[in-house]
Amino acid sequence: MPDGGRSIAEVAVKGTIMRKLPRKVDVLEGENAAFCVEVEKEEMDIHWYKDGTELRETHQTILKSFGRTHILVFVNTMPQDSGLVTFLVGRSKTSSQLRVKAARHCPPSCPVGVQINTERANAALLSWVPAQDSRKNPPSGYVLERQEVGTGSQEWLQCLTTDSATSVEILGDSVPCEADYRFRICSVNKYGKSNNVEFPRAVHLVPVARIQAPLQDALVPEGQDASFSIELSASVIGTWFLNGTQLQEDERFSMRRSRTHQSLRIRGVRDSDNGAEITFIAYGIRDSAALYIQVCLWFGRAYLCYLFNWNFEMSLGKKICSLLSFIQFITSHKKVVFLLSAPLVKFSPLSEMDRNKFVEIGNPIVLYCELSDPAAPVHWYKNGMELQTMEGLHIQSEGTMRRIVIQSAEFTHSGVYCCDAIDDVIRFNVEVEAPPVRFSAIPDDERNKTIQIGCPVVLQCELSDPSAQVHWYKDGSKLHPQTGSNGTLRRLKIPSAELLHSGLYSCETSDDTIHFTVDIKGDFSYQNFDS
C-alpha cells in the first residue's frame, strides 16, 4: 500500500463467517497491519481479540464496521505487537498469526550537494540535499557545526540543529567573535549520525557588538602614559584613531584586544596632545574620548599647575574646592601656586537620536547642544579639524544654546563632530545617506502588455536617480541582456516576440521593484534579447 501498510489479508469461506482471516500476516516494523472479516448478516455481535485479550479502539488500534464487513488495523506496528489475532461472532471464530519483523536500525546517510552563499553582507546561506536513500533510511534532523579558522584550535562547536529544513542562514550576530568560520553538517536519527560533510569555503562573520563600558576622558601628566579602554558585548576587531588619523602599532602606540576588552596605550604624552580626540571604531560601533594634559611649569621657586579636574585631590590630602583665584602652599621653603578655574562648564545630556544623525543627501544638518554657562566659548570640530563659519555652514550661539547648521548635506559631511567647551566635550555622529532610488508610476497598459508574435517587446521605466543600476528578471530568473539606458530611463527590448517570452518581468534597484506582465499571442520558439 502507498502508506506503508500491507494489503488486507482476506480468505473467502462458507458459514457464519463468510470471509475468514488468513493463517498469518507478516509486516515490517513501522508498517500498518490490517485484518478484514465478512459475516453472514449485518449488526451481528462481533469481538476482536489479541492473545486472548479483547481489543478496544485506541489511536494505534482502529476498529471499523461497514455493514457485514469488519476491519481491524494496527497502526505503526512494532515487534511487540506480534501475536494471535482472533475474530469472534456468536460461536464462530477465525484467527491469524501477526508477525512484525524488526527493521534494520541504521544511522542515516550524510547529506549531499552542500553549498555556501555569501552574497548577503555578514551572513552565510548554507544549503544541502538529503541523501538519495533518505526515504528508505530517513534522518530525523541535521546538526550544523562551526570551526574558527586561524586560532590553532581544531575544535568544532555545534551552532544549531534543524528538523527538516535543507537550508539555514548563519548571521554574524550568532557567532561569539569576529573571525573566519568553516561549517560542516551531518544527518542524525535515533540510531546514530552520519559522517560530517564540510561546506566548500570559509566565511568572515562579525557579531553585532554593543558598548558595555564606554571610553572615558583622561587627564594625564605630561610625559606619562595615557590609557584608554572600552568593553564590548562581543569580540570584534576594531581600529583606533587619534584626531581622525588611524593609529598603527609602534613604539608610541600600543593596542591590545582580549575577547571583549579593547585598550590603547599612548606612551609619553606631550603638551601638543592636549585636547586630542581618541576614537574607537568597529563593526556597528563608534565611541570617542578626549585626552587632557596636566602641565607643571617651573618659575623660580614656585610651581604653576594647571588643573583640569575640579575638586582635584592633592597628594597632601587637601581638596581644592574654593572659588579663590590662587591657593598657595609653602613647604620646605618652596612656594607651590595652584591656579584655579571657575566651576566647570557642562553640556546638558542629549538623547541617542540627537547625538546620532542619519541625514539624506541634500537635506540640512542641524547639531545643537546646551551649556551650563551662557558666556562660555566653544569650538566646533569635524574629525579633529576645527570648523569655521563659511558658505553653507553656520555656527550659531544663542544664550546657552550652541548650534551648527549645514544647509545641504553631502557625503563629505559624514563624520564625528565635536563641540568643545574646554571643561566638557559633546560628540555627534553624522551619516549622510543617499535617498532611496524609486521608480515613477507607470500606467497599467504599459505594465501589462499583449504582443503579437514576431512584434517587438519594449519594457520601459523611469528612475529617480539617473546613475542608479538596475537588474532585469523574468519569472524570477536574472536576465543578462544589454539593456538601454538614457538618463533616468531604463529599457528592455526584445526585437521579435515569441511564445517563450510570455511571463512576469521585473526591473529592480536596491530600494524598489517594478513589475511587467507580457502575454505573447502565437506559436514560436526562438528567444533573442537585445538592446
UniProtKB/TrEMBL annotation:
One of its GO terms (cellular component) is cytoplasm. InterPro entries: FN3_dom, FN3_sf, Ig-like_dom, Ig-like_dom_sf, Ig-like_fold, Ig_I-set, Ig_sub, Ig_sub2. The keyword Plastid does not apply. The keyword Hydrolase does not apply. Gene3D superfamilies: Immunoglobulins. Residues 107-208 form the Fibronectin type-III domain. Keywords: Cytoplasm, Disulfide bond, Immunoglobulin domain, Phosphoprotein, Repeat. Residues 343-421, 435-517 form the Ig-like domain. Coiled coil: none annotated. PROSITE patterns: FN3, IG_LIKE. SUPFAM superfamilies: Fibronectin type III, Immunoglobulin. It is found in: Cytoplasm. This is Obscurin like cytoskeletal adaptor 1b. It comes from Echeneis naucrates.
